[in-house]
Design goal:
Largest sheet: 4 strands, mixed
Radius of gyration: 17 Å
Number of helices: 3
Order of helices and strands: EHEHEEEEHEE
Strand content: 35-45%
Strand order of the largest sheet: 1-2-8-7
CATH superfamily of the largest domain: Vaccinia Virus protein VP39
Number of strands: 8
CATH topology of the largest domain: Rossmann fold
Distance between the termini: 12 Å
Helix content: 10-25%
Number of domains: 2
Length: 140
């Protein structure tokens, strides 16, 4: 079993890199093995924003902000968590290249794998149109 959890597949910053990951896993997977991908399902409500700023936490000595810039054509979010404390400013950047579940399924097929099962969470919840996350099992 090979697994990438908590949106890790989206840290591969291009579609080509994500497809290369599927191909690499397929080359190492045994006949009865699984490639398990856990990720969020993109939501058009928050993906409609080109830029976003939100307050994550406010305290008397600290403020934490979440920001992002969205490139819809590349499906990329450039995110920065900003921590402000006194004279100290810390930036925690991350680039996410999100993919829809159907796009991940296509990458799996291009790598010779197929979707075996999909859950809405780690406890085997039913995946449906309202699901905001997925655990997808790919195999031969």
């Amino acid at each position: 079993m090979v697994f990438v959890v908590f949106n890790t597949i989206f840290n591969l910053a291009s579609q080509e890199d994500q497809l290369r990951c599927f191909c690499n896993v397929a080359s190492h997977l045994s006949d009865d093995g699984y490639f398990v991908v856990e990720a969020f399902v993109p939501d058009s409500a928050w993906l409609g924003e080109d830029q976003y700023v939100a307050t994550e936490a406010v305290g008397l000595d600290e403020v934490v902000l979440e920001t992002w810039r969205h490139d819809r054509s590349a499906q990329v979010l450039d995110k920065v968590h900003i921590r402000l404390r006194g004279d100290d400013v810390r930036l925690y950047p991350v680039v996410l290249r999100y993919s829809w579940p159907s796009e991940l399924d296509l990458m799996a097929r291009l790598a010779g794998l197929r979707l075996k099962e999909r859950w809405a969470g780690r406890r085997g919840e039913h995946f449906g149109p309202q699901s905001n996350s997925h655990v997808s099992f790919y195999g031969w």
